[in-house]
Amino acid sequence: MEPLGRRHFFRTSASLAGASWLTPVGQWLACAAEGIAPGALPPKTSFGGTASSVIVLWMQGGPSQLETFDPHEGSRIAGGTTKIQTAVKGLYLASGLEQLAEEMGSVSLIRSMMSKEGDHERGTYNIKTGFRPDPTVFHPSLGAVVCHELPNGGTEIPRHVSILSSQWPARGGYLGDKWDAFLMDDPAGPVPDTKSYLTKEREKKRMEGLQFVEQSFAKGRAKRVEETLHRETIRGALKLMTSEQLKAFDVSLEPQSIRDSYGDSAFGRGCLAARRLVEAGVRCVEVNLGGWDTHANNHQFCAANNKILDPAFSALLRDLRQRNMLGSTLVICMGEFGRTPSINPTGGRDHWPGGFSIALAGGGIQGGRVIGETDPEGKEEPKKQVKVADFHSTVFEALGIDHKKVNQTPIGRTVKFSEGDPVRALLDA
Amino acid sequence: MFLRNLLFLSMVTIGTLTLGFNLIPPRHGLPPTPSNPESYQVDQFQGTVKQVDASFQKSWSADNIQAALPADELALARRLSLGLMGTIPSLEEIRQLESQPAGERVNWWIDHILQDRRYSDYLAERMARAFVGTEDGPFIFFRRRKFVAWLSEQITKGVPYDQMVREVIATEGLWTEKPATNFITVTVQNDKQNQPDPVRLAGRVTRAFLGVRLDCAQCHDHPFAPWKQSDFEGFSAFFGQTHIGFQGVYDGPGEYVVEDRKKEVKRTVAPMVAFSRDLLPKDGTLREQMASWVTHKDNPYFARAAVNRVWALLCGQPLVTPVDNLETEAPIAPALKILADDFSSHNFDLSRLVRIIASTETYQKQSLSLLDSSGLAEKAWAQFPLTRLRPEQVAGSILQASSVATVNADSHLVTRLIRLGAQNDFIKRYGDSGEDEFDSRGGTIPQRLVMMNGKLVTERTGGGAFTATTRIQWLASEDPKAVELVFLAVLTRRPTPEESAFFEEKLQNPELSRGQEIQDLFWTLVNTTEFSWNH
């Protein structure tokens, strides 16, 4: 039996346009922190608005551009992969992404991404931070910069979240570890370890004792102990344990039809949780889909991954649009690099950083556009190349963050958020 | 029929007796481990120790850095246990330590650890992370546990490090019978007729044994060092004749052929080392030649990479960061070379290396300083660095803190099963920091949640029959004694007078039982910075 409370909850939340599921207190908090009146969350147009949150669909392993966003049907390098028409005339995706094809009016593609990192770890660092690995400075990930630069949306839960965490989740870099992503597994389960079984009084007593012992350890180590973030993590943990906003992680509060539309996969649930988290004021959610390192049987693995990605990505866009959130939420789908045009003897494609695709949708980004072009024979260099740093500058611009802002690293080096130039054709109407 | 009944009865009796014996282990105090004072006085031992300290002192005075004071014996004991065994001293061990004559305690403690199975097991696991990674590897072809157990056995036997590495690189045979060959079989490629991958192997060898990230040159020329893409190919070619068949790993004929990705042509690559070519022998299989070259006394990278790793295990941070990349633009502490020279000229003896590092004044500094608040002292090793403990060290410490007796390889079966199970589950929740990271990250909220509300801490600090909470409650009827025991069990130190007074007063609280109060104290201490950070 469906409990009455839940039905009632949904009816109520449907009437709060834009503020959705948030409890009245949560909504009030969110609005207060953003400096706006409740019920009047920022004006959100579908296109050209400024984004205030990012959802990164992270395709770990390096997805094949040819089997996703950049098909070359009929050419030698396609290896039999066919293309499909999309909602945008003249724009094709690889077959397997039929639902996403319907949403392409809101999505733009960069097909000429150029990086110089063909190793998973280095490539991941490069794409997530916009810089190549450098032994003298540790750059922050995109999500960490977004959380650092945009105001706190009254959120008690971590504002930088990584769902189904991958091997190298987004980190805070020189901004500090507190900007690291909060890692969590499949949202089908509860947020782990958030329940305390003690009485309030006893918990308070334990905390008093803790404070006392911490003092003696901090003697002669004040600065270092502060840098351990120990006190902050305890405070954060306590706040999280009692927060109403924990519900944002719980996808079971969504109607069955919505849950179904994202697909019955951990990644699909992750995308749905990402939407709920963004509603609660979370700034950046990374949702990981692994299995793209297709050195063998590329076509078979890509088809299986597309079955998971297609419903989740498209449902996320539809859901955001219906809730009037697409204009303020930037959705990015990318991996550490692409795959070779040539197919190796085991039917696989190997690492290919020189000409791969990234999809962007929503906040601050024009829809239905394509930047760059790869050679259908896989021999020439791509046209209108976009460097990783240019991509980062574009994203920061869409979020209203000054990408040229100069920051001091802990050892006093100055670094910009990004060294590239924004791709105007993605931003300008 | 009668016989069968008799057999049944006798089996039941034997089973019950065995179970009973295991559940209720015989109680006797452990005799203290014998120590070996001569090993600290042998051939140039103290000379190297002094040289290392002098090199640091020189840099401190040049940079006007105030060095910290020496740490006390209990702090050193904790540090050494965590670095070499992944756990903290037990109450039982603390008693043994304090029964040694003053002035000899630290050396006795180092020897105590070097003879303990927990040391070889822990070191083997840490080495295995660098040698074969953390993943389970290819099914059937790879036996990680056998590999770790073999490493541990070599360490226990005192096999020199260079010999161990030679065997890891060059052994032939089945991975089940010759566990060293798992180094090769972990790279088996199911899509290439189950043959090993020369590229991955070459990458592992350079990173793990030489501290050089040559594999970056796989895709492009090395940005900092004079390694070229062709150097890496030539190095990979040493594994070009390594095959896997019914008899396991063997070396046969064949040439190493690579496919040029851009031109799509195949070409043969001859085995070649990038430097010190004169150290390469002419005889033996290609792998044996490479193994001799890698571990050669005059290969400058080999000993330094090992020293950097052992230093990192002991101190929580390598001398050169990252631990597997010695080619940095930053200045390198002269201690690396001093220790490496001593290591290579003394038969690559790991125990000697551990003893030397642990005996330096530099290692024995306090992790606090009332004179320096800039953090510079810590960076220059003039103050012991505060580093976050790895998940398995935190798990090991919780399990040890919650038991009065030493939880070691000799502990009876039930305890160890509980320990391994709980440890793995905890590590998953706390977040394994991967292959072989020595990073200086701060703690995170999810980790704090695991420590505050997680299953392991809740159960271990609870009032169960076997927990230290319960035993201390019965052992120490006086409150001051109980507080002291909890501090020793969890933090390996005695409480300050203020702390004693504070918690003794809490124990008088009429609202909670004395057991609950002791549980709360345990929980409190387990959740301190002091507990989760090596100091």
Gross CATH architecture of the largest domain in chain A = 3-Layer(aba) Sandwich
Structural class of chain A: alpha/beta
Major β-sheet annotation of chain A: 9 strands, mixed
What is the strand tally of chain A? 15
Outline the structure in words.
The complex is a heterodimer of chains A (429) and B (535). In chain A, strands 1, 4, 5, 6, 7, 8, 11, 12 and 13 form a nine-stranded mixed β-sheet that branches. In chain A, strands 2-3 form a two-stranded antiparallel ribbon. A two-stranded antiparallel ribbon of chain A has the order 9-10. Chain A has three domains: 1-41, no CATH class; 45-190 and 250-427, Alkaline Phosphatase, subunit A, CATH 3.40.720.10; 197-248, no CATH class. Mean pLDDT of chain A is 85; it is low at 1-49. In chain A, helix 10 packs parallel to helix 11 (298-322). Helix content of chain A is 34%, strand content 15%. Chain A is globular. Chain A has 13 helices and 15 strands. Chain A has helices at 4-15, 24-34, 98-102, 120-129, 142-149, 200-218, 222-227, 230-242, 256-261, 266-279, 298-322, 388-398, 424-427; strands at residues 53-59, 83-85, 92-94, 107-114, 160-163, 182-184, 284-289, 329-334, 338-339, 351-352, 354-362, 370-371, 386-387, 406-408, 414-416. With 429 residues, chain A is α/β, with parallel strands linked by helices. The relative contact order of chain A is 0.21. With 535 residues, chain B is mainly alpha-helical. Among the domains of chain B are: 118-294, no CATH class; 397-534, no CATH class. Helix content of chain B is 52%, strand content 4%. Chain B contains 25 helices and six strands. In chain B, the strands form three sheets. Chain B has a two-stranded antiparallel ribbon with strand order 1-2. A two-stranded antiparallel ribbon of chain B has the order 3-4. In chain B, strand 3 and strand 4 (266-269) form a beta hairpin. In chain B, helix 5 runs antiparallel to helix 15, helix 17 (391-401) packs antiparallel against helix 22 (479-491) and helix 22 (479-491) runs parallel beside helix 24. Chains A and B meet through strand 6, helix 6, helix 7 and helix 8 of A and helix 19, helix 23, helix 24 and helix 25 of B.
